[in-house]
Write a structure and sequence with these properties.
Elements lengths: L1 E3 L2 E2 L10 E2 L4 E2 L14 E8 L2 H17 L3 E8 L4 H10 L6 E4 L4 H6 L19 H4 L3 E2 L2 E2 L2 E2 L2 E2 L1 E6 H7 L11 H14 L15 H9 L15 H17 L19 H4 L4 E5 L3 H8 L3 E4 L15 E2 L2 E4 L6 H13 L1 H7 L9 H6 L6 H14 L13 H16 L5 H16 L2
Parallel strand pairs: 5-6, 5-7
Antiparallel strand pairs: 1-2, 3-4, 7-16, 8-9, 10-16, 11-15, 12-13, 12-14
Helix pairs in contact: 1-12, 8-16, 15-16
């Protein structure tokens, strides 16, 4: 896929917790502290994630309660569900949680409604150690409405067991282009006799074109909360998968089914694709699921394009409701989640690399080999001169939906990449400017 004759080029975060609309409380699997004693402040803390994330979070919170007598934390979570809609219902009902996990694409809308507290005005929350580049991802009009729970980015994972058996060399990820990746993918498919496809990444998730846009000198979302990606870049993003499918490196239309989003359910784990794009904090899960030799690589094009495409992205954000009855205590909790090494010893990289560098360093010795590989890659990426990244605009969820719908139409040949790109910009700009 190419922007010009001489330029080589080449995932909506799934909101997992669910608040019940009727009861204004979280549904599904839940956990929490014991009921508050008389005189205690009880904080309602909600987040999304699986049972293991909930378990390690609870372990950390017991430390918080020991350090903060008089504050009890009731946690509620679920591993899947319509979190965004039901969280909106809870805020609309006047009963928001005190502390909550906020998705990147939802932050601006809640902030502009006045639903979230300005974290900079809460002295109990110490921000001195947090890099400005991280703070900027939760800042709207000079006010901090969300603080990253941790940072991550996307990367390429390759099942080296498959490539070794096929006799295919994995390119140098520090120098490879999107053309190099296509050649690699095609060779894997050819040398496995079509039993394994070389590439199996998700075209429909916006993290890919966001990174590609940066590589081309564009901002997918701009500083003033607009859509900045060009029609040409979106066209080429779609065209790349179309071309790769024609040459055999990418599976045929209809190959991918709804099998779930966990590493164990992935096609990489099934052994039917050799490479996939993932959030790199999930690397250990994929290596465990594959039971092979999975290697973690940078995304193609980082040295062959106009500029770096990477940024340090919040996995999610901690926010405090503006109407919390306990803002001081809520700020203490967010401070603990951000700056306490004892708590981080339990949660480790469950929510990305800790944003306080000293906390991140303190957990290194406790990490598995796979988690250390992800943390090391995140650190190496941040040594580069990375372009800025901004808060997602209002309407970002509709942008993600539009990309997903059009990706399916392109996949089955019902629309051309060029027409899809034109439609994408029209619908996305309408959604953002609504």
């Amino acid at each position: 896929m190419k922007k010009t004759a001489n330029t080589h080029i080449p995932r909506r975060i799934v909101l997992g917790a669910a608040l019940t609309a009727a009861g204004l409380a979280l549904s599904g699997c839940g956990g929490g502290a014991s009921p508050a004693s008389a005189g205690d402040v009880e904080l309602n803390f909600v987040f999304w994630g699986d049972a293991n994330r909930a378990k390690v979070t609870e372990e950390a919170l017991r430390i918080f309660e020991q350090k903060n007598p008089g504050i009890k934390v009731k946690t509620e979570y679920q591993d899947s569900g319509p979190y965004a809609d039901k969280l909106a219902t809870r805020f609309a009902g006047g009963n928001p949680p005190d502390v909550l996990a906020m998705a990147n694409r939802s932050l601006l809308e809640y902030a502009q409604r006045g639903a979230l507290a300005d974290l900079k005005k809460l002295p109990e929350l110490k921000l001195d150690a947090v890099p400005e580049t991280v703070l900027s991802r939760g800042t709207v009009d000079g006010k901090l409405y969300g603080l990253a729970t941790g940072v991550t980015t996307i990367g390429m994972v390759v099942n080296k067991t498959i490539t070794d058996e096929a006799g295919v060399t994995i390119p140098d990820d520090k120098t490879w282009s999107w053309d190099d990746y296509a050649k690699f993918a095609n060779e894997v498919t050819q040398k496995t006799g079509g039993k394994v496809y070389g590439a199996g990444y998700d075209v429909a998730t916006e993290t890919g074109p966001i990174l590609l846009a940066r590589q081309r000198g564009e901002d997918f979302y701009t500083k003033d909360n607009k859509l900045g990606v060009s029609e040409e870049t979106i066209r080429d993003w779609f065209q790349y998968s179309v071309d790769l499918r024609k040459t055999g490196g990418y599976p045929p239309a209809g190959f991918f089914e709804q099998i779930g989003g966990s590493p164990a359910q992935s096609y990489l784990a099934k052994g039917t694709v050799a490479s996939q794009i993932i959030p790199i904090n999930n690397f250990k899960g994929y290596n465990d699921a594959v039971e092979g030799d999975v290697v973690l690589l940078r995304i193609p094009g980082e040295t062959s394009a106009e500029r770096r495409g990477y940024s340090a992205d919040p996995t999610m954000l901690w926010s405090i409701a503006a109407k919390s009855k306990h803002p001081k205590e809520a700020a203490k909790l967010v401070d603990f989640l951000t700056n306490d090494s004892e708590g981080a010893a339990h949660t480790l990289t469950q929510r990305g690399v800790p944003i306080n560098p000293s906390v991140a360093e303190s957990i290194t010795a406790k990490l598995s080999t796979d988690d250390k590989a992800f943390v090391d890659l995140m650190a190496a990426i941040q040594e580069d001169d990375l372009p800025p990244a901004y808060v997602y605009p209002k309407g970002a969820s509709l942008v993600a939906d539009t990309l997903k719908q059009l990706a399916t139409e392109v996949e089955f040949g019902r629309i051309s990449p060029a027409d899809a790109a034109k439609t994408f910009l029209e619908k996305s700009n309408a959604a953002i400017n609504k």
